[in-house]
Amino acid sequence: MTERHGVDSGNSAGALPLDGIRVLALEQMIAAPWATQLLARFGADVIKVEHPERGDTGRASVPRITGADGREVGATFLRNNLNKRSIGIDLGRGADLVLDLAERCDVFVENYKPGTLARFGLGYDAVSARNPGIIYASVTGFGTTTPSPYRDWPAYASVAEAMSGIYQWARQPGQRPVINPVGALGDIGTAMFAALGILAALRHRDATGEGQHVDVAMFDAMVALADVVPALWSLGVRDRFPGAIVTTFDAADGPVVVQVSREHQFARLVTVIGHPEWVDDPRFATRQGWIDHLETLIRPAVERWTQGRDKLAVCSVLATAGIACGPCNSAEEVLADEHLAQRDMLVQFEEGSESYVVPGNPVRFSRMDTRVDQRSPYLGEHTEPVLADVLGLSPERVARLRSTGIVS
Fold first, then answer.
1. Each residue of 212-270: pLDDT tens digit?
2. Which of 379, 389, 337, 381 is nearest to 359 (CA)?
3. What number of other Cβ atoms are within 10 A of residue 125's Cβ?
4. Is 11 in contact with 45 (CB distance < 8 Å)?
5. CB-side exposure of 179: number of CA atoms within 13 Å?
6. What fold does the segment set 245-329 form as a domain?
7. Among candidate residues 69, 99, 47, 95, the one with its CA nearest the CA of residue 385
8. What is the pLDDT of residues 298-341, one digit of tens each?
9. Three-state SS for 268?
């Protein structure tokens, strides 16, 4: 595990791909914060605007730890705000201050309910009037630039995921849909599209000098990620895995997942488990035959073979034979995984007497650096340096703003 301490908005390893790009983030929870965290990992200077007292709502999530500033902070905030600077501004009284900052930024990211920031005078029209070259990115449940019957609905990841059809597509007979089956897929999937859209808009600005509004809806993003739902249904498919073995088999210390979706893969599997005669068996001549006999013949045979072998041993043999497989890991096994350690994908932070682990940056470049992760900021930790560095405000002016409660 890689250990990190403190905050450093720079990078000691060399130039980063987004060096020189400044992002102003009015964001909450996961979708927008994850997108801006990715930009920060690539070198952008992300200034996170938070309410002076409450901060990002993700700070109130559970579980929580007590930071060195004496405030409790939740896991949602801790894992989605690495490498950022926090400035506390009351939007009701400090909108002009936000516009001043936006005038000196390249990107403005927000994930408020549509219309909310416009009421503060911080919508796209107001911000672009001050800074025509700015990339203004909105991340919402159902979009901001086109009509939608759901436009005013609040949306968490589970809502967008459910509406995409994937819950019903994956639903097991006689059971309720599994909600949030892989954590906040709707949030992080949307965040990746948002980051990609921002980068594309920056490239367009490089060519034309024009800023623009990037509009990303969680519902749209989930339909894109759950593409099998509309695509396969439109082709007449009514089963989640037509003609494929996609299941888990029990090893000595837990389940492994195996996917066999082609004839040569089936031949490899049955040969490994000691039934090469099944390659020419008419019962398995079609892919439907695999499904028909999965529980009565194939599963018992596979699990006789896996008996006495642990998950990694099973997967080692199957993978060597060219069969796609992997252990179904527990959280403890993920934290101890050698691959993740080798690729710095588990980053540990110390906060007083407590420690926590967050996922690292999955993107690596052969000729560019990425940022060494620094902890998520304390609420308002960088208010004074940001106002001084970006706007040139004097300590006395910042003190007056603080005394009135406009900033923290």
1. 999 999 999 999 999 999 998 999 988 777 789 999 999 999 999 999 999 999 999 99
2. 337
3. 11
4. no
5. 6
6. formyl-coa transferase, domain 3 (3.30.1540)
7. 47
8. 999 999 999 999 999 999 999 999 999 999 999 999 999 999 99
9. helix
CATH 3.30.1540.10, the chain: domain bounds: 245-329
Residues with Cβ within 8 Å of residue 369, at least 6 apart in sequence: 11, 13, 14, 15, 16, 43
Structure-block tokens of residue 125: 């029209």
Looking at residue 286, the DSSP 8-state letter turns out to be S
Structure tokens at 104: 């000196």
Helical packing angle, 311-320 and 263-272, nearest 10°:
130
- CB proximity list for 335: less than 8 A, separation 6 or greater: 1, 346, 357
Q: Check residue 198 and report its DSSP letter.
A: H
Q: How far apart are CA 76 and CA 84, in angstroms?
A: 15
Query: Where in the chain do CATH 3.40.50.10540 domains reside?
Result: 2-228+366-403
Q: Which residue from 178, 329, 337 is spatially nearest to 256, judged by alpha carbons?
A: 329
Q: Which CATH architecture has domain 2-228+366-403?
A: 3-Layer(aba) Sandwich (3.40)
- The residues assigned a catalytic role are 187
Alpha-carbon span 7 to 275, nearest angstrom: 58
Instruction: Tell how strand 346-351 and strand 2-4 pair up.
Output: parallel
Q: How far apart are CA 324 and CA 260, in angstroms?
A: 7
Q: Are 284 and 294 in contact (CB under 8 A)?
A: no
pTM for the full predicted model: 0.93
